[in-house]
Write a structure and sequence with these properties.
The protein has one domain: Purple Acid Phosphatase, chain A, domain 2. It is built from eight helices and 15 strands. The strands form two sheets. The chain has an eight-stranded mixed beta sheet with strand order 1-6-7-8-9-11-10-12, with helices on one face. It has a seven-stranded mixed beta sheet with strand order 5-4-3-2-13-14-15, covered by helices on one side. The longest helix is centred in the middle third of the chain and has 18 residues. The N and C termini lie far apart (44 Å). The structure holds 2-acetamido-2-deoxy-beta-D-glucopyranose (NAG). The site of 2-acetamido-2-deoxy-beta-D-glucopyranose has 8 residues, from loops. InterPro entries: Acid_PPase (IPR024927), Calcineurin-like_PHP (IPR004843), Metallo-depent_PP-like (IPR029052), Metallophosphoesterase_PAP (IPR051558).
Length: 332
């Protein structure tokens, strides 16, 4: 499949148009130039997907394409676990095409994908997914460990959450994780938290959106990630983050923090789902929980936010809107 970005302009040139990469910030910063001519920023969110089309991955992909046709999408966000079971074996791994390029084939999905890494991605050659040469196979692909995307009304902060989770280090359960670039772990996490805090404080966007693979709050199989509750959440609270978006639990869910400031949104229904488990750890208000496959759309304007969760038939399962303000009360 030819790379769509190559149709008119060389991809290297287009990348410059798409995103301006600055080296001055601690976290790598990309500017997403809008390809839309109105006030709204629309994007889709899918997580936990790469299974060569199996487990309804192809059905979810088809409906993502349909919804992207209706709304003027700027990009797609992937919340990680991009390739099952064990990430990619290298940059030439055929899984990249079989689980990504050949699955998300709708014309309306021909746009930038911003990807983070999940724990399964760390079980392969982690550097393969980060390697820019993958863009010569499919130039929609962009994966980095932690980075910021400035997209007009919103700043999106992508955070590499896997290194936070103790059990991957203490009880790897027979799995081998590729920790190149992460060790010594303590330094990695400390620097990352410092950089995220700095970037959040600098942000003047109407919306601050943080994206990571692991949930902070979840009623799903894995539940809350205690390490993130302790180390990351206080920084998000102090800096008026509005949305935290994750995957990892293979479900769709929305939880409000008890003070209503942060919405915790899980979009991890990109393929295998139906675990049939709901935990109520009383960590916030569970507003919506769906155990099957699907994805989410986000629309942000200067005045409000609209979130919609969809199932494999493209049916809207749950919609939620709120006005913008610095201290959101999230009253509907
Ligand atoms: C695919 O989606 C349908 C509809 O939600 C569901 O009934 C079915 O179990 C799903 N298949 C798999 C393999 O998860």
């Amino acid at each position: 499949m030819a790379c769509f970005l190559n149709k008119s302009i060389p991809s290297s040139l287009l990348l410059l148009i798409f995103c301006f990469i600055s080296t001055t910030a601690e976290l790598q910063r990309l500017r997403h130039e809008p390809n839309y001519d109105h006030d709204a920023l629309n994007f889709l969110v899918v997580g936990d997907w790469g299974r060569k089309g199996q487990y309804n991955q192809s059905k979810v992909a088809l409906q993502m394409g349909r919804i992207a046709e209706e709304l003027d999408m700027a990009f797609v966000v992937s919340t990680g676990d991009n390739f099952y079971e064990d990430g990619l074996t290298g940059v030439t791994d055929p899984d990249f095409r079989q689980s990504f390029t050949n699955i998300y084939t709708s014309k309306s999905l021909e746009m930038q994908w911003y990807n983070v890494l999940g724990n399964h991605d760390y079980r392969g050659d982690v550097e393969a997914q980060l390697d820019p040469t993958l863009r010569s196979v499919d130039c929609r692909w962009l994966c980095m460990r932690s980075f910021v995307v400035n997209a007009q009304v919103a700043d999106l902060f992508f955070i590499d959450t896997t290194p936070f989770v103790d059990k991957y280090f203490t009880h790897p359960g027979g799995h081998i994780y590729d920790w190149r670039g992460v060790l010594p772990r303590k330094n990695y996490i400390q620097n990352l938290l410092k950089d995220v805090e700095f970037a959040l404080k600098e942000s003047t966007a109407t919306w601050k959106v943080v994206i990571g693979h692991h949930p902070i709050r979840s009623a799903g199989h894995h539940g809350d990630t205690q390490e993130l509750v302790e180390q990351l959440l206080p920084i998000l609270e102090d800096n008026n983050v509005h949305l935290y978006i994750n995957g990892h639990d293979h479900c769709l869910e929305r939880i409000s923090s008890s003070d209503g400031q942060i919405q915790f949104l899980t979009s991890g229904g990109g393929s295998k789902a139906w675990r049939g488990e709901v935990k109520d750890e009383n960590a916030g208000e569970i507003e919506f929980y769906y155990d099957g496959q699907g994805f989410m759309s986000v629309q942000l304007t200067h005045s409000d936010v609209h979130i919609v969760f969809y199932d494999v038939f493209g049916k809207a399962l749950h919609k939620w809107s709120a006005p913008s303000s610095n201290q959101l009360n999230w009253a509907i």
